[in-house]
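Summary for the steering committee. One of the milestones for this cycle was to obtain a three-dimensional model of the protein with magnesium ion bound, which we needed before selecting residues for the alanine scan. The sequence and ligand used are listed below.
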Amino acid sequence: MIDSVLRTVRLNKSFGGLIATNNVTLEFERGQVHAIIGPNGAGKTTLINLLSGDLLPDDGEILFNGRNITNLPPNKISQLGIGRSYQKTNIFAEFSCYENCWVAAQSRLNTSMRFFRPARQLKAVLERTERALELCGLSSRRDSRASAMSYGEQRQLEIGMMLATEPELLLLDEPLAGMGSEESLQVIELLRRLAADHTLILIEHDMDAVFSIAQRLTVMVNGRVLETGSIERIRSSQAVQEAYLGVAEDAV
Amino acid sequence: MSALIRSMPLLAALLALVLFPQFGSEYYVGLLTRIIIIALFALSLDLLIGYTGLVSFGHAAFYGIGGYALAIAFQDASVIPLWQALPLSLAAAAFAALVIGWISIRTSGIYFIMITLAMAQMFFYFFFESPRYGGDDGIFLFLKPVLMVGSEDILKLDQENNFYYFALSCLVSSYLLLVMILRAPFGKVIKAIKANEHRVRALGYSTSGYKLVSFVIAGTLAGLAGFLEGAHSGYVNPSYMSWHESGVCIAMVILGGMGTLYGPIVGAFIIVLLQNFLPELTEHWQLLLGGIVIAVVLFLPRGATSLYPRICDLIRRSRRGEREPQETADD
Ligand SMILES: Nc1ncnc2c1ncn2[C@@H]1O[C@H](COP(=O)(O)OP(=O)(O)OP(=O)(O)O)[C@@H](O)[C@H]1O
Ligand SMILES: [Mg+2]
């Protein structure tokens, strides 16, 4: 039996008549990088939204460290140690880069219902903020307004904010999308470093990146899990070749 | 711009306000007292509109409740002890804000505007139609609150100057209170909620709790303003809570510059002074007032107070010969 951090059991979600998540049963092993790939509209983001509490499933269960988190709101799930980054950049546009990470880092206080002492005197938050900036590679851009940064930098900030909450399980929705090759390499390097002491669930279209970081792979098509297993197994799977990888490689 | 230059006009204005009663006539001291009270009302709304992203269209409810709590409890009293009357008004406004807030923060955007408006209207009609509380005519108060220690009167608010300084110190302490709150962890969270509530929740905050606390703080400060207005004018009536009052309050916040604490104060000065002096110029003064509000919103979308940093910036840049504004964010 594997030591799973997160498990989904027959998860379903539909939008009107569209079944975006169809009977998804998956297990994510502690300490591993588990990539989810699939064509556009396969339901990858929807699955992440269910895991992070941004969406509620129609039925099925989600277990995190053995605990049922199926109907918990996003803030509770975040507090349990699941962090996520968004495919569509979701930051505080008018805040500085530093303040974006600050708000994230401050969320790990017991409570932010504190009214008297200035926030910037909180050393623990300060350190978490600095560490997150350092990790995502934006230390030198700390005072820039987020909306004035390049798209690639905003993507880095997206990851930095997630890291500032110090999660144990990271849900990364296309972290490399829209990045230049330089930035991409940096982020791949970061993910590799994070993989040493975190569990990662990584959605990514960049196959080279996926094959270089991930240990396990799940292929989704039309809301369903087509195949899941080790990299080698997926590479050699006939069904995957036909349904997805062949197409993807042709397209590149 | 250095913090000192930035806060210079603020300190100068405070000094002018402190010294004013030495020079101004009793009429103007009274007018200024009224402006200070309205400024406090607008300041409290800015915590919601400018910092938390909650556009409340029912803020006058708390202003009215602050006034009515004083008037109802002390209309027949032979003396109004400040340290009983003031906490009573604040508690009544806070409690009302807790209830109204608890219901309305479940909604957002246009629905939040509508529900706060509807709640305030309910209070308006309750007092409008209750003969016990004077109905349409409201309640008169023939005494002013007194601050007593033992049987000694420390501060009697029936002297115009005393009332003036009392109102001014309420405004200044509320201002400082908000500065403190906004710098504290709580303030960071509500500003983030205004920017992107969804992300704040995803980062692990239960946002509704923060919005509710912000709503209660703002409602309580509005109650303080209502208490002062009731005590100062000696008269409380349902129009305190009318949607018109809420609307003018929003206009003052926007006109002065929301999201800055001094903006709403300046907005209150502009609107009350215009309301006071325009009628002497023309009988179509309301039209003129509307025109001025529209012009400010069009040409200074960040409010009248954004003029000062703009001018400072312009001077500084022309000295240095720079052209492009820097892209660093303000704290
Ligand atoms: N909130 C929503 N309302 C209605 N339909 C939705 C919603 N979110 C997603 N969908 C639909 O569900 C399907 C799955 O979408 P999803 O975003 O999960 O795909 P994806 O695998 O992340 O695709 P991509 O690679 O383009 O990001 C799509 O057909 C999409 O149009
Ligand atoms: Mg997606």
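Key point for the committee: Chain B touches chain A at residues 180-181, 183-189, 191-192, 195-196, 198-207, 209-210, 213, 327-329, 331 (CB under 8 Å).
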